[in-house]
Design a protein that fits this description.
Layout lengths: L1 H16 L17 H44 L28 H16 L3
Length: 125
């Protein structure tokens, strides 16, 4: 959870730093002759490089988080729940099943259905 909060904070911070600097207040004209303006450009470039580094770190953290989640998902799939084995030593008689209540299909209808399936399997495209 901490990683998610960190990722969110790092994701929002660089957008403000990526904005270009406006004209310098106080009447300083931007240009090659102004050392203050050149210093501001250098600082802006440093901030841009820092932003790129932070974005790269953010992408690394996201990839690590995604990898960890995938690994946990795979581990969860590997776990087989233990099923209770049937009790073969139970007392009492087994339940009686009435076969007349089960679904039935006449032999002729079953043979016809089987023939249709085999014909369709032979003629598939």
């Amino acid at each position: 959870m901490r990683a998610f909060v960190l990722l969110a904070a790092l994701g929002m911070a660089p957008t403000a730093m990526a904005q270009p600097l406006p004209l310098i207040p106080g009447g300083l004209a931007p240009g090659p002759a102004s050392p203050e303006y050149n210093q501001m450009l250098v600082q802006q470039e440093q901030m841009r490089q820092q932003m790129v580094q932070q974005q790269n770190q953010l992408m690394v953290l996201e990839a690590q988080l995604h990898g960890q989640q995938s690994q946990q998902d795979i581990q969860a799939l590997k776990i087989n729940p233990r099923l209770a084995l049937p009790n073969v030593n139970r007392a009492g008689a087994l339940p009686q099943i009435d076969p007349s209540q089960l679904a039935s299909m006449p032999d002729a209808a079953l043979a016809d259905s089987n023939r249709k399936v085999l014909d369709a399997a032979r003629n598939h495209r």
